[in-house]
Amino acid sequence: MKTVETLFIAVALGCDAFAVGLGVGTRFCSPRQVFRLSFHFGLFQFLMPLLGCFIGQNVVGLARDWGPWVAFGLLLVIGAKMIVESLRSDESKPAEDCPDPTRGFSLVALSLATSMDALGVGFSLGILGQGLLFSALIIGIVAWSMTWMAMKLGNQLSARFGRRMEMAGGLVLIAIAVKLVVS
């Protein structure tokens, strides 16, 4: 596969990471949070094609049947939490008490949910006998950079539009979840 084709695939796979990064960046955008989310999204986008190749050769039915539902559940829960937090008045809960989606289970859940499509890409690349490691590396780097840019953009939009952007971010996560099970 040519490098240009790999870049197109990487950008397509990075769109979910961009959308989630945009939503998360509306509320959480310290340099450490940007690094954590970008790094983990890039890492998972790098690892999932490799795992997809392995799964494709061994247990393809399980990944195809349950992968979208797992991602749906994870994105739905995190998106709903963001919406609930955006609806609470500023006085009812201090900002520092809001759960940080760039840490712990939420970080892993978001990383998994945004990289589920990469499993299928890994399966396809493995069947085609393509340079899987190079392709996975490009996919990971593109996901990292798209997440970083999205978090910065989300933070700027949040500064301008306030808590409505956090609600929009939660709605984006839920829309991605629905897209995963509908498609």
Summarize the helices and strands and which ones pair or pack.
Blueprint: H1 3-25, H2 31-58, H3 60-87, H4 104-114, H5 116-128, H6 132-161, H7 163-182
Helix pairs in contact: 1-2, 1-6, 1-7, 2-4, 2-5, 2-6, 3-4, 3-5, 3-7, 6-7
Describe the fold and architecture:
With 183 residues, the protein is mostly helical. The protein is built from seven helices and no strands. It has a single domain (3-88, 100-182), classed as Growth Hormone, Chain: A. The protein is globular and about 50 Å long.
Primary descriptors:
183 residues, Growth Hormone, Chain: A
Residue fraction in strands: under 5%
CATH class: Mainly Alpha
Global Rg: 16 Å
According to CATH, the fold-level topology is Growth Hormone, Chain: A
* Poorly predicted segments: none
The DSSP helix count reads 7
H/E series: HHHHHHH
Helix content: over 70%
**What structural class results from the helix and strand content?**
mainly alpha
Distance between the termini: 26 Å
Please indicate the count of domains.
1
CATH architectural name? Up-down Bundle
Number of strands: 0
Short characterization:
The protein is mainly α. The protein contains seven helices and no strands.
